[in-house]
Write a structure and sequence with these properties.
By secondary structure, the chain is an alpha+beta fold. It is built from 26 helices and 24 strands. The protein has six domains: 65 residues, Orthogonal Bundle (Helix Hairpins); 240 residues, DNA ligase/mRNA capping enzyme (D-amino Acid Aminotransferase, Chain A, domain 1, 2-Layer Sandwich); 88 residues, OB fold (Dihydrolipoamide Acetyltransferase, E2P); 77 residues, 5' to 3' exonuclease, C-terminal subdomain (DNA polymerase, domain 1); 86 residues, 5' to 3' exonuclease, C-terminal subdomain (DNA polymerase, domain 1); 68 residues, 3-Layer(aba) Sandwich (Rossmann fold). Strand 15 and strand 16 form a beta hairpin. The structure holds nicotinamide-adenine-dinucleotide and zinc ion. One of its GO terms (molecular function) is DNA ligase (NAD+) activity. It catalyses: NAD(+) + (deoxyribonucleotide)n-3'-hydroxyl + 5'-phospho-(deoxyribonucleotide)m = (deoxyribonucleotide)n+m + AMP + beta-nicotinamide D-nucleotide.
């Protein structure tokens, strides 16, 4: 970040361009973090982007965008959950990073209130989990909602009921009481969960916050029930009667009602006392057993809190004083290039082991080529490139995630022999050319199936939980079988029994394999010859085709034969098959080209055909009620639906045997247009397609 233009030197045009870039970048980070529970950048990087955005907006207030990240809370809700509108909005917190920010906070409050007497605050650990609002009516837990975008949250009531720290009933509570707090996972529970996930060949979580968010936001409450979540109460939403007159008493009241409240919460007078408490909490951070990422200061007097009120996304009466990212310096010993399933070459820093925030770190991600690449021949810095070289003294950090990153390079300590790192243009695993397509930050090996790294990663993907999920054949076994030349492609899995079954000798001789487990493995493989279409499409491991898109494709085409015929006939960018493919709601041009390419590339195609010959692929059964008027029809939803989510409407339509498309064409039978419907409704009119509103749709679709 040291090489960006200072805000004071930005021209108006530069500022405008940068605000646009920041809005996009922060939006993407928000979605990855809040909606998908899979952050792509560290919290420290995220905070830096937000600060930069705020600084530019402060200097150029007229350039502030309508979609400015500083006016948004959280991110869009994930699909699949019901929505709950928060009676009282759930907001974010303003951040403080330095002691001056805390002094400013107090000064702003004093000037806002015109208040000169002593000011009391609570200092509370900022728990690094996700917030949850629990609505009790008559002392009974009725509803639980995530923060979502602050206005609307996801309905996770059944999941919340499985958390031991959340009482199902309260005695002596106000008639209506919304208790707010943080769902989190302890370090010990997180480590145990990841160990279980790993043993089962399932995905592991990057950090306790992701694990907590991913565990609470499950569509199946039984999964949540199996995850050790905890809850600290620290706030409230709608109330039929006040809890207390001060923040500290209100917290005590929540505690008496049966909630866990954080024992490190203290009352402090003025910034000095707050900073002392901050340091005291920071000193205990490593031994708490759960993650905290700062200390929250709140004006204690609730009457003053009411007077101070809110800005667009944050209260004026509170601030989150964040801990600095955990940092350490060490030597970069080597840069390795790893090759992934889709051929992506990822540089990894091998470090002299160093302890960062209590964890020994010996690897760090270097993201991609541009991140390492430094200066051009004139010595100018390429944007964002850090000029990282083998032998460098580098600063490593972990901030809210376990994958460590490089924060800085100390050029004064660079050994004279350290040479500019040359990113390979050939795959280190198979020697094929590695190319970078325009607009792609990633260089990819073009070896496809002949590349051993890609082949192994694909096999691992093929047997993963949401793909073929073959019992007894996890990532480790696949790797070992590949190494011994037993399997090279997915299809080989299905000839294992034929090749080794008779004697079983070789398999029996393998470490950890008895005749029994060999039999079990063959049985599991046989069972998986029968596979659902969506799993098969996902398992092929085609770039950009995730689980969701695989399901969309399966639902749309219904049978392997139909899917395969369409992919074979499709031409990128032209023709009816292409048009049909990209008209599927949720399938974009990037995904579509990747699919079509895979089916037209000779070796890939041959591998697919050989595989499918071993399988019996189940058709997608549409359980269409005979009398549904929309069965077999193609529908398009446009504009805002007010009574159900898009996801819900779509699921309902599909349950009735309809297809849902993303754009209007001559094949569209019916358009359901809510308020704000634009071009799609116009196009439907032009094509003479019938248009109905949401109420008419509900009448047509009936109750779910
Ligand atoms: N890495 C990423 O890509 C990424 C993306 C988005 C957000 N983030 C992280 O999230 C932060 C901003 O998002 P945000 O708005 O969710 O959080 P925030 O930092 O603005 O804080 C608000 C949240 O703090 C939590 N909290 C914990 N203890 C609390 C207490 N005692 N009192 C009140 N609130 C308490 C609540 O969940 C509340 O919603 C960033 O600073 C960053 O750390 C990271
Ligand atoms: Zn390769």
């Amino acid at each position: 970040m040291s090489d960006v233009t200072p805000v004071e030197q930005l021209s108006e045009a530069q500022a405008r361009a940068e605000l646009a870039r920041l809005a996009a970048e922060i939006g993407r980070a928000n979605e990855a973090y809040h909606t998908l529970d899979a952050p792509e950048i560290s919290d420290a990087d995220y905070d830096a982007l937000k600060q930069r955005n705020a600084a530019i907006e402060a200097r150029f207030p007229d350039l502030k965008r309508a979609d400015s990240p500083s006016t948004q809370v959280g991110a869009a809700l994930a699909e699949g959950f019901g929505k709950i509108r928060h009676e009282v909005r759930m907001l974010s917190l303003e951040n403080a990073f330095a002691a001056e920010d805390v002094a400013d906070f107090e000064a702003r409050i004093r000037s806002y209130l015109g208040f000169e007497g002593p000011l009391l605050y609570t200092a509370e650990p900022k728990i690094d989990g996700l917030s949850l609002s629990l609505r009790y009516e008559g002392g009974v837990l009725m509803q639980a909602a995530t923060r979502g975008d602050g206005e609307m949250g996801e309905n996770v009531t059944e999941n919340a009921r499985t958390i031991a720290d959340i009482p199902a009933t309260l005695s002596n509570a106000p008639e209506v009481l919304e208790v707010r707090g943080e769902v989190y996972m302890s370090h010990a529970d997180f480590a145990a969960l990841n160990a279980r996930q790993q043993a089962a060949g399932e995905k592991t979580f990057a950090n306790p916050r992701n694990a907590a968010a991913g565990s609470l936001r499950q569509l199946d409450p039984q999964i949540t029930a199996a995850r050790p979540l905890r809850f600290f109460a620290y706030s409230w939403g709608a109330l039929s009667a006040p809890l207390a007159e001060t923040q500290i008493e209100a917290i005590a009241c929540l505690h008496r009602l049966g909630f866990q409240t954080n024992p490190l919460t203290r009352l402090c007078q003025g910034p000095e006392a707050l900073l002392a408490q901050y340091r005291a909490i920071e000193a205990q951070r490593a031994t708490l057993g759960y993650d905290i990422d700062g200390v929250v200061y709140k004006v204690n007097d609730l009457a003053l809190q009411r007077r101070l009120g809110f800005r667009s996304t944050t209260p004026r009466w509170a601030i989150a004083h964040k801990f600095p990212a955990e940092l350490a310096w060490t030597r970069l010993e080597a840069i390795d290039i790893q090759v992934g399933r889709t051929g992506a070459l990822s540089p990894v820093a091998r470090l002299k082991p160093v302890t960062v925030g209590g964890v020994v770190v010996s690897n760090a991600t270097l993201h991609n080529e541009d991140y390492i690449a430094g200066r051009d021949s004139r010595g100018d810095t390429i944007r964002s490139g850090k000029d990282i070289r083998v032998g460098d003294w580098v600063q490593v950090y972990r901030a809210g995630d376990v994958i460590p990153k490089i924060a800085d390079v100390d050029l004064t300590q660079r050994p004279p022999e350290a040479a500019l790192f040359v990113f390979p243009h050939l795959c280190p695993q198979c020697g094929s050319e590695a190319i970078r397509e325009e607009g792609d930050a990633v260089r990819r090996c073009t070896g496809g199936l002949i590349c051993p790294a890609q082949a192994v990663e694909r096999l691992k993907h093929f047997v993963s939980r949401n793909a073929f999920d073959i019992e007894g054949l996890g990532a480790k076994q696949v790797e070992a079988f590949y190494k011994d030349g037993w399997i090279a492609r997915p299809a080989d899995i299905f000839t294992l029994e034929q090749r080794f079954g008779a004697g079983l000798q070789q398999l029996k001789n393998r470490e950890g394999w008895g005749a029994k487990s060999a039999d079990n493995l063959f049985a599991a493989i046989r069972e998986r010859r029968n596979i659902s279409l969506n799993r098969l499409i996902f398992a092929l491991g085609i770039r950009h085709v995730g689980e969701t898109s695989a399901s969309l494709l399966a639902t749309h085409y219904g049978t392997w034969a139909a899917f395969e015929t369409a992919m074979t006939a499709a031409q990128i960018g032209e023709g009816a098959e292409w048009a049909e493919l990209i008209a599927i709601d949720g399938v974009g041009a990037v995904l579509a080209s990747s699919l079509v390419t895979a089916f037209h590339q000779q070796a890939e195609r041959a591998a697919i055909d050989v595989l499918v010959a071993h399988l019996s692929v189940q058709d997608v059964v549409t359980r269409a009620p005979v009398n549904s008027e929309v069965a077999g029809k193609t529908l398009v939803f446009t504009g805002t639906l007010e009574k159900m989510t898009r996801a819900e409407a779509k699921a309902r339509a599909e349950a009735l045997g309809a297809k849902v498309a993303g754009s209007v064409s001559a094949k569209t039978d019916l358009v359901i247009a809510g308020p704000g419907a634009g071009s799609k409704a116009k196009q439907a009119q032009a094509l003479g397609v019938k248009i109905i509103d949401e109420d008419a749709w509900i009448a047509l679709a009936g109750q779910a």
